[in-house]
Amino acid sequence: MLEIPESNHIARQLTQIIKGKKLKNVYANSSAHRFAFFFGDPNHYHSLLVNKTVDDIQAYGGLIEMSMNDTKLVFGDGVNIRYFEQGEQLPEKHQLHIEFEDLSSIICTVQMYGGMWAFVDGENDNFYYQVAKEKPSPLVGKFDITYFESLMLTVKENACVKAFLATEQRIPGLGNGVLQDILFNARINPKRKLKTLNEIENEKLFHSIKNTLIEMIEKGGRDTEKDIFSSYGDYRTILSKKTWKNPCINCGDDIVKQTYMGGTVYYCPTCQPIL
Ligand SMILES: [Zn+2]
User: The whole model's pTM is what?
Assistant: First the structure.
């Protein structure tokens, strides 16, 4: 699942590799998938996109937007995006294949669910897309402590820290994956009630969101997720499915793994007490 580090890293990779390329062929929905979502009729994607030139690629939350003047192609956070040079063996099954004039390709596949939306700017009123474009990313200056504390006021009375950070699209692209290391670095338990955090903990959490995400991006995404060349990122997750059996890197205690609020959480009971 693409979260902020991977969408930003992949947007950079795509900028280096496909910016300026012209689209020659678009094959959408070749292998039907129940949870592959398109904007309008995928059969129209070819005529909408052919002969257009990629002029910009940006990440918004966990989404990636490719611009061809006023025509957009947005990849959702559940889409695997892979790049292939001319002559490379292409996967047989895919939900979207974009072939460029130089015969290189982008191939998109959906594992669980994912959107690939092609549209003319202004047409797409999808909630996740709108909110990802509107809300400031934690990577920018506008996402400051004042803004962060204003977000804290939007949660229900008894909400826990995980619910605050990773639900309701409060911070688009911050999901259950990056949440684990953000909370470990802030030494805050995902089950803590948000209202029990003191001023110092609020600030620690705020800085941990920014610093952890920046480090993840600088290292090319997490080591649990793949880039457009099918390589894992170089950011070594502290708490993830890959590492949770190891002792805590700070105190040596056993890491706790639990299903909590529709996803797995990992935490160190000593460094991140529930209180
Ligand atoms: Zn610990």
Answer: 0.96
